[in-house]
Amino acid sequence: MADDMNNGNDASRHYQDAMQAQLGERVTNLGRRQTDLEAEMRSGFKQMETALSGLANETRSSIAAHCRPRSQSGTSHSGKRSAWR
Predict the structure, then answer these.
(1) Is residue 59 a part of any domain in this protein?
(2) From the CB of residue 14, how many other CB atoms can be counted at a distance below 10 Å?
(3) Whole-angstrom distance, CA of residue 30 vs CA of residue 24
(4) Where does the record place the region Disordered (predicted)?
(5) Does 33 have pLDDT greater than 80?
């Protein structure tokens, strides 16, 4: 467990009294929690970016499919000539 705490956060500090030790431990733990939170936020935002990109692509495809001309020859899907031409 001592190796886990030795990650560059000066875990081997020596305190003069118990209050300083408690405060030092709280500061160290808050630093770890902030690091964990940053990683979770990055991951969450990456997932949101991926999902939003997929939604945008799906929306573009849907719009493109609905905006394509149905027929270039003036006939409807049934093969009859359109009266509105």
Answers:
(1) yes
(2) 7
(3) 10
(4) 64-85
(5) yes
> At residue 75, does pLDDT exceed 80?
no
Q: What angle do CA 42, 46, 50 make, to 5 degrees?
A: 175
Q: Domain count for the chain, please give it.
A: 1
* The amino acid at 68: R
Specify if 11 maps to a domain: no
CA distance 17 to 28: 17
Nearest-angstrom CA–CA distance, 85 and 75: 9
Give the SS3 label for residue 53. helix
Whole-prediction pTM: 0.49
Instruction: Please name every residue paired with 81 in a beta bridge, in sequence order, or none if there are none.
Output: 75
Residue 23 one-letter amino acid: L
Residues linked to residue 19 through DSSP beta bridges, in sequence order: none
